[in-house]
Design brief:
By secondary structure, the protein is an alpha+beta fold. Helices cover 28% and strands 32% of the residues. The strands form 2 sheets. The chain has a 3-stranded antiparallel sheet, with no helix packed on it.
């Protein structure tokens, strides 16, 4: 249920009813239950971390999957990837593809990769 869904239920129950009629108990009750359900939904979404993590060992010039610890709802997210060779030097990382579950990258040398990501849409997206 979205904010707009709840707002429409409230409007239907209170302000969009025919002029001169009383608020119907069933409509009012439905709107109040929708409010409570929406609050619970937002509370549940906000208690989990919206930041995703992934790490992997990359082999030189071979596609490497960095799979998020929790999939996104879609591929609308930003991410940062860092990689280091065996001496601790940073490595160049090239994006091959991305999806809701992972990004696929490639390096020119063997490396250890670390990534974090955050959805554009905000909480729980």
């Amino acid at each position: 249920m979205t904010y707009s869904d709840v707002l429409n239920l409230i409007k239907t129950a209170l302000s969009l009813r025919p002029a001169g009629t009383k608020v119907q108990v069933e409509d009012h009750e439905s709107a109040e239950i929708a409010i409570l359900d929406y609050v619970e939904q937002v509370k549940t979404e906000s208690t989990g971390s919206i930041v995703r993590e992934a790490h992997s060992a990359a082999t030189a010039e071979v596609n490497c999957n960095l799979t998020w610890n929790e999939a996104f709802a879609d591929s609308d997210y930003s991410y940062v990837v860092n990689g280091f060779d065996s001496l601790g030097n940073p490595v160049e990382i090239m994006l091959v593809s991305r999806s809701s579950t992972k990004i696929v990258v490639k390096t020119l040398v063997d490396a250890t990769l670390y990534a974090i990501a955050r959805p554009y849409g905000g909480i729980g997206a």
